[in-house]
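Step 1: inspect the first sequence and its tokens.
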Amino acid sequence: KLIAKNENKDSKYLGPISFYKAEVYFTAADLSFNENKMDAAKKYAHKSLKLSYANEYKKTLSENARILSKIFDKNNRIDSALYYSKIYIKFSEEYNMEYDLKKIVQSKMQYEFDDILKEKAVQEVKKQADNNRTKLIYLGISIFTVLGIIVVLLLYRNQKIKTTKIILTKEKLELEKASLDFDLEYKKKELA
């Protein structure tokens, strides 16, 4: 009732809405067939088949051809049942081939996408490793530079200490010499 009420005879329903209309007609045909209303089932199946042919909906074509084949088989019209069985087989195979092809293409695209993601992840890891290596090199250079400066400062300090010790030893020796010279002069004066 709802289909008959909303049906517009002049409209071809091409485009996305035609798919839904074909599905509604198919569902009505299937329900009518299950309720053993063969004339209504045949009418809705033919309407769905017409829309499906016009828009190349292979799945709906095969489903409607299967229903029509069953209807004509129940009415003992073997030639029509055979005709629609052939249509069912043809479009069912075409639909399955297209579906399989879509799945293969989808799997291939997913595989390529995963490869791209993996490659980006590998590049990111390499970039991070390069950054870490560069940071480690700079850190190593900084540590060696600081250690070098410390070693130079320690060597300078040691050298300064040695120089100071030598100067102090020299001054001590000079003071001792001066003291000995003074003592020697004093003893000479005492003896003289």
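Step 2: inspect the second sequence and its tokens, then contrast the two.
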Amino acid sequence: QFWREIADERSETRDDDTYCLLDGKRIVYDAGLYYRLPRGTDQATVKCVKDREVVVDVKVKGRSKTGFVTEWDRKGYTRTTYLDDRRHGEQKQVVDGRVKSLTMFEKDRVVWDKDYYPNGKLESYSRKFATGRARIELGEDGRVYSLDCIPQAGQDREFRELCGFEEPLTTKIYDGTGKVSHSSWGSSRPQS
């Protein structure tokens, strides 16, 4: 009922670049429409397009949403995927037109996350495994500044070489002054 009232209240639009579809009915663009719903709202589908790009595509039932939404701030946006109102899947943050971070969620818990420098190079990567977390931090020059390896990290291509799972390897860990502060030696086989 509420959805039909909203659709009737909002004027239809002929704008082909920026609009929303509320249960298939084209209305004026409002990317936050799904947030302002009263409790117990019927199921509905909200899809919003901004400048010809889909920025919201969710199915809403009550207060629960499944799909993805995009939220903006002054420098960029964050696109988050939800399943039953929990972050589930990829979350991408874009700042000044470049990917700043990617995070993978499973039922609202972080599985892995990556941060990037403005030039697009990897700044840090962290991944949760059953027995702990592996992490790497790199400088813009590609030097390793922090490295935490665990046996399960050998299953992840980002960690395989640096943690020494592909072949014996010495990884130099640099401090903030650019000097080697630690060396790490990897084994030739991942342990289980």
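Step 3: confirm your contrast with the notes below.
The CA atoms of residues 7 and 25 lie 7 Å apart. Residues 2-9 form the longest helix (8 residues).
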